[in-house]
Amino acid sequence: MNIEFGVSSACFYPVETEKSLELTGEYGFRNVELFLNSQSEIEDEFVNKLISVKEKYGLNIVSVHPFASFAESFYLFSNYERRYTDILPLYDRLFEVTAMLGASFFVFHGAKIPGTISDEEYCRRFKTLIEMGKKYGIQVCHENVVHHRCESPDYMKMMRDNIGEDFKIVLDIKQAHRAGFSPYDFIGKLSDAIVHIHISDRNSEKDCITPLKGEFDFSAFFKTMKKTGYTGKYIIELYEWSYETREEIFDAYKKLQNLSESL
User: Fold this and answer.
1) What would the pLDDT profile of 108-158 be if each residue is shown by its tens digit?
2) For the residues 58-70, what does the mean pLDDT come to?
3) Mind listing the pLDDT tens digit for each residue in 201-243?
4) 258 Cβ partners below 8 Å, 6+ apart?
5) Against a cut of 0.85, is the pTM above it?
6) Residue 19: which of 51, 40, 50, 44 has the closest Cα?
7) Sequential DSSP letters for 166-225
8) Which candidate, 37, 53, 132, 51, places its Cα nearest to that of 92?
9) Secondary structure class of 77 (helix, strand, coil)
10) All structural domains of the chain with their residue ranges
11) pLDDT confidence tier of residue 1, bands split at 50, 70 and 90
12) Which residues contact 147 (CB under 8 A, 6 or more apart)?
């Protein structure tokens, strides 16, 4: 089975962004999700530094995750509309940087529950962001994140029905479990909208550990996604406390490749 894996620079946080990108190259990864962690990191000088690291190691930056995720409820989805319109230039720049880095996807968390605007207005504003991303040839994709509106497959299905085929999803395994769902709940309702996947494992003690060290059946998951026609990347996304050594992440990467080749 032809599957491509990668790693998120978030695995190395709080190592600085440029050093995290260096680490992905040094450890032999090629597909990368890049977390931008500060506003200065979207200035041209810094972006050019990231591009130099990318070119040095031949990296493929698949997606970009913005530093503003924690504030999207406040900035983009409050009932104070001026705050929403005032912040749009920042997202325009973030989308431009995503394109400069050669990424296809921009990862979006959205509003926390319960929120202060209607579902219709939420969809309208997110569609505006999608259209802004299109100008730069990127897809703005909504991730399923616990305690956020889109933690639920039903809510994502509502957005897909409202927005149409432009609504795309980043499916995160751990976030689905944290919200009380199975990843298959999202696949069953929205398989054709899934364009990017975050993978991790879990056990009885932790809900985010290195892939193939826990209870999740990756073989079944990959087979299911193949049946849906999914051709995107599988990005290992962990936290600093999720593993003991950085080598453990690359070891999981190699084991996942071997597993996929045996399917």
Assistant:
1) 999 999 989 999 999 999 999 999 999 999 999 999 999 999 999 999 999
2) 96
3) 999 999 999 999 999 999 999 999 999 999 999 999 999 999 9
4) none
5) yes
6) 50
7) T-EEEEEHHHHHHTT--HHHHHHHHGGGEEEEEE-B--SS-S-B-TTSSS--HHHHHHHH
8) 132
9) coil
10) 5-262
11) confident
12) 112, 113, 179
Superfamily of domain covering 5-262: Divalent-metal-dependent TIM barrel enzymes (3.20.20.150)
CA nearest neighbour of 46 among 72, 9, 21, 69: 21
For the cut 80, the answer to whether the pLDDT of residue 244 exceeds it is yes
Q: Tell me the residue type at 149.
A: R
Reference 36, options 98, 112, 87; nearest CA is 98
Output DSSP code: residue 60.
Answer: E
CA distance 86 to 237: 31
CB 158, CB 189: distance < 8 Å: no
pLDDT mean across residues, the chain: 97
Strand partners, 65: 35
